[in-house]
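User: I want to check something. If I give you two sequences, will you return the structure for each one separately, not as a complex?

Assistant: Yes, each is folded on its own. Here is the first sequence with its structure:
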Amino acid sequence: MADLSMDPVRLLGFADLRGIECLRQTVEALPGPSVRVVSGLNVAALVQDEPSTPMARRNKKVLLDELQSIHRRLEHSCQHGAFLPVDPGAACCPSGAVESTLQMSWGGLADCLAQAGLYHQWDVVLRWLPEIALEGHRAALALVAAQREPAALGVAIGDALRAERTRRETSLVAALSGSVTALSHGGAVGSETEIAITVLVSRGGEGAIEDALDRIPSDQATGVTADLRGPMPPLSFAAVRLVRINHADIVRSWQILGLPHRADATSLHQKWRTLAAAAHPDRFPGEPPSAIQFTEITESYRLLRTLLGAQPGSIDSLKRHTGYRVILPECSVYSMLTVENAA
């Protein structure tokens, strides 16, 4: 007989226990696997079955359909009320491990839900035509074109497009920073005629984003179209992660943060705050290694903060904490740090 406790399941997110059954029914009405509730204290988790076939053996269309189903369910969940999402890339474990894993984290999950559950994430996308961006560069480009060197003209056009993109991105960030709770500037992506930045606002606060767009200088807004994508739960700012931890992960995180032999919650927080502020990607635009370092520092902090809890400890004392664990987001401090460095 198959051991059902080893069947994989996926955590979607956490919500207030009082309205969880209504939310479960709303989510289960959408395409996807059946959904059940695991509850503790005044918080509950939405859990759905995960296909037993490994990802590597599922074709791309199946994976895309599954991902779209998950994101649609997350989107509806955050519109239902306070909701704390689980990162879709770190949300699975055996069915038999769910309750014992969550049992250690209900208190922390309740705090995070209260801090970040009523915030929504939006993608702000600006687009414009190359001709519009090059309008102010025509005289300089004409001089290059007169040299009859196609390669040089191509380089000059590329440089002009990138310069205009940077100028618009700077203006967009400046406008948004005064209106949104946080923004993911280091994650801005797009082509040479497109900008996409993720922002965090209070539930129902998309009007603040629209107001910010109105503050972009007119010479940079002419011919630009704006697209707001959301609302989504705060996956880029306050997502829970469900991971399987081994002792090597603990050792590596300890070393990344440069902690002494023993540490407690206060010294861990101070160390993270210092290192994260120094490595934040907004301070080093265009330098990918800084973004990687910042991510490693933050993930190391989240892991060790979860394992240490309120008690001081060392690497050796944390050995007993291996296995599946819930890694809590650093909601308020991370958001504040993001806005400070984006301003």
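And separately, the second sequence with its own structure:
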Amino acid sequence: MIKVIIFDFDGVIADSVDIKTKAFGELFEDEGGDFAGRVVDYHLKNTGVSRYEKFRHIYKNMLNRELSDEKFRDLCSRFESLVTDNVVKAPFIKGAKEFLEEHSGEYACFVASATPQKEIEDIVMRKGLGGYFKGIYGAPFRKSDAVKEIIAKQGVEAGEVLYAGDAMSDYNAAKGSSANFVAVAEEDSPVFSGVDCLKIRDLKGFDKLVRSL
């Protein structure tokens, strides 16, 4: 029986994945359209990885340049400015808010996100969801570590935990602790191609799925 549910945020609670995709393209548009396209492609193949890791990878392995502390801070600041307000304004994934409103008292609910800690806390609060979660984990806390900590602090077995995510980083974080996993993705999603896992398009009827596990 499921006692704990861990949610990724972008693409699982909020329909906000495209917002961050566009932001990555904008940040590197001065490098040329082709390069910006490569950055977007890299981002899409690594959803769920923190922007910190992505910026370092882009500079080291794609631009072959040193990323100074000043430039790193500038990228982080510009990215936050581009996305935060828009994520707050983004619609909810179908069924997400309803599930939290009706069932957050029944299950211990958590957020595990690659978004920086203070930023994801602010977004959750501004979207009116603060009272539904027992804990929020953001970068630099790794999702895999978040799952382990939640299991330990809640005193539950891994089989009593369900992780809902839309990226392979979510799947790997869940499976690294032997927790249950459900992908919030289309059945033919290339992200989970060849991966044996439950897939749901949105969170409508999510309560029935949780009870079935």
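Because they were folded independently, the notes below concern the second chain alone. The longest helix spans residues 69-89. Strands lie at 4-7, 108-116, 135-139, 161-165, 180-184, 198-200.
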